[in-house]
Design a protein that fits this description.
It is built from 5 helices and no strands. By secondary structure, it is mostly helical. It starts with 5 loop residues before the first helix and ends with a helix.
């Protein structure tokens, strides 16, 4: 139907990897007013928080503007940064999760 050159796919993969690395960096950084447009590590860290106030928040992976537009954004805070992160995967689900089913 449509074909992308291998170089384009490679470039996209590198960009997505760089973005993924960026949002998961353990740094306190602010982009100023651009925080309302682009994801920062503190903003994304809230996405991984297990605090009840952070559930279903900060979905954006590149742009934060969608979260602000759809009212799913929550500002990072010291309390949220200190909250427990992650989620529980039961041992019998690990293999299934790893292969994406
Ligand atoms: Zn993440």
């Amino acid at each position: 139907m449509f074909a992308l050159p291998a170089s384009a796919i490679a470039a996209i993969a590198v960009c997505l990897g760089a973005i993924n690395f960026w949002v998961h960096c353990n740094v306190k950084i602010s982009l100023g007013p651009l925080n309302y447009l682009f994801i920062t590590p503190p903003f994304h860290r809230v996405h991984h928080s297990m605090a009840k106030i952070a559930i279903d928040r900060n979905f954006g992976n590149i742009l934060s503007c969608w979260d602000y537009l759809f009212l799913t954004a929550i500002e990072p805070s010291a309390a949220l940064n200190a909250s427990e992160k992650g989620f529980e995967i039961k041992s019998d689900q690990v293999a299934r999760r790893l292969i994406g089913l």
